[in-house]
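Q: Can someone sanity-check these two? First one:
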Amino acid sequence: MTAFQCISTALYPGNGEPVTIEVDTLDHAAGVAHLCRGFDIAPQDWPDGYGISNEIVTLSTHQGTHIDAPLHYAPGLSDIAAAPIDNFMGQAVVVTDTVSGGDTVEVDFDAYLQLLDRHAGSARAVFFITGAYRRYGETSYFTDFKGVPARYVEAALDRGYTLIGTDAFSLDPPFAVMSRAFV
């Protein structure tokens, strides 16, 4: 049996995400009113006037560990439901750059290409480990991380890899870095 490793992170209110996570509790009294809506029944018809309780969670799909579908980047492209589940299971190439400093991943590019070529066909994913995962839950996780240069992504896609990931907030460098480069 092949061992799998879960790479998910917990989502919770107050974890520092730029779009805050909100959890609103529907208590038992409000729950019975919700259950009665659209039916010929009243809350007082329920034992003690109580129904179910529930939580209503509001969050962005760009939080915690997630997959960005092509639709995330441009209108009219495929959404995540169109992605074959097999793309997310199996072997991965792991590239590590935990050297402090810099806004982008920097590893020996020729060695990176050799690694991709060696595992092409047997692995579908390439993951860049930058050390950012150690700061998940801290504000700096969202502002101080390394982006993955386009040539690294393009090289993997050109070799048939279908999933590119990182332990950082984004494949792109921090927004402040990109906006300064734009200006």
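And here is the second, same format, sequence then tokens:
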Amino acid sequence: KMALIIGGIVIILLIIIVSMGYIKAPPDTAYIISGLRKKIIIGKASIRIPFFERVDKLKLQLIAVDVKTSSAVPTADYININVDANVNVKVSSDPLLIKLGAENFLNKEPVYIAKVAREVLEGNMREIVGQMTLEAMVNDRKAFAEKVQENAAPDLNRMGLEIVSFNVQNFTDDQNLIENLGIDNTTKIQKKAAIARAESEKEIEIAKAQAKKEANDAKVL
């Protein structure tokens, strides 16, 4: 009878421990279990041992970062410009990188992560600006964005972060060179269109003249 009572107490204690230790992580948050064992849970349930293990949270959702050059940066052709970009970053869920993310951003709010990422991204953006000409950047924003991502990715990975998207919003300068470059490009396009139209009209006139000649020849015959 005593054995049954002891067995019942043990079962009740186990149920209490299980109910106290049951945790379920949402898909956008990693639960880091530490203590007797180390375990990372994302989007599934697990059991932690109360009093012997603790659970910390690591947010994995997208974080929007507005990256602006704090001062004008000289391009490869020595033109001072400012750049404004919208970037989305997140703590990587890659098994190797998430451990680094846990070391750097455990229990941290997205605002703090965005601040750290912004500093890294601005530094890399300034570096790429110095490697490209103004015309190359303005005419191919995608190429500029890709270069910044390639340059910044290793720095962010070392902290457990990854870039999800990078979009350049604006290039500006104090001398209106970018605006004039746009006008110049528009003029070139208009010129090409005018030449194409003139060539087309010329071909139409030649075709009309040929048709008229063939009609006259037919009449003579």
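A (reply): Looked at the second one. Confidence is low (pLDDT under 50) at residues 183-187. The CA atoms of residues 33 and 55 lie 5 Å apart.
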